[in-house]
Amino acid sequence: MVSSTNSITAIVLCGGLGTRLRSVSRSLPKPMVPVANRPFLEYILDYLIVQGVVRVVLAVSYKKEIIIEHFGSKYRNLAISYSIESNPLGTGGAVKKAIEQIIPCPEQLILIINGDTFVEYSLSDMVSKCKEKHADFVMALKDMDDTSRYGRVKVEHHNITEFEEKKSGYKGLINAGIYLFHPSLYKAFPKSDTFSFENDFLESFIRNHDVQPSISDGYFIDIGVPEDYQKAQEDFEYTNLAWKAP
């Protein structure tokens, strides 16, 4: 568990339409599709609790009422609030809108997580790099044998320096979609209310800032396509993952 967890607010991006998963998600928002008889989003929130986080903002849009009705204002000991998009804002716009409702404090850190991906990440390592090594921004990376679906992230001298194109069969580090930073970075976001966090913000931000990696060697699954959704069903049902159960 991470010390000073009261200074961390997690934002979980739950607004994607999930068109590639529509054959199995039907009328559900993607983070709510059942995996081993539980909504996928519950596993993400369980892992936040394991890491010591006590506050989360769910950034919702498509079928938002299903998520709000299921979780309400509290899940176990996790306080929940909502950032509601009337229209899709993209990942960046969703983050920007959610940050606007967080009350800043001097030690505040913002943790960003995708609602359709589960990653075993070390929040303590990410916090250490923000607070002790004074990184502007920390990104969780995952080592993959085939990065063709995601593209690769280049790391030099303990800094993230470049996002590389998607190339079939290449081994390397991928962006796991977990970010930690101070809310003051909000000022560096594009002025537009609708933008991509990765393409319109991160790609230019890494060129002039200290962006450090936190490399995960744990479990990773992105349920955005039916094949990996089916794999998640088996993994979460039969694999001994200690954080699975409340």
TrEMBL record:
<feature type="domain" description="Nucleotidyl transferase">
    <location>
        <begin position="10"/>
        <end position="236"/>
    </location>
</feature>
<dbReference type="InterPro" id="IPR029044">
    <property type="entry name" value="Nucleotide-diphossugar_trans"/>
</dbReference>
<dbReference type="Pfam" id="PF00483">
    <property type="entry name" value="NTP_transferase"/>
</dbReference>
<keyword id="KW-0614">Plasmid</keyword>
<dbReference type="InterPro" id="IPR005835">
    <property type="entry name" value="NTP_transferase_dom"/>
</dbReference>
<dbReference type="InterPro" id="IPR050486">
    <property type="entry name" value="Mannose-1P_guanyltransferase"/>
</dbReference>
<protein>
    <submittedName>
        <fullName>D-glycero-D-manno-heptose 1-phosphate guanosyltransferase</fullName>
    </submittedName>
</protein>
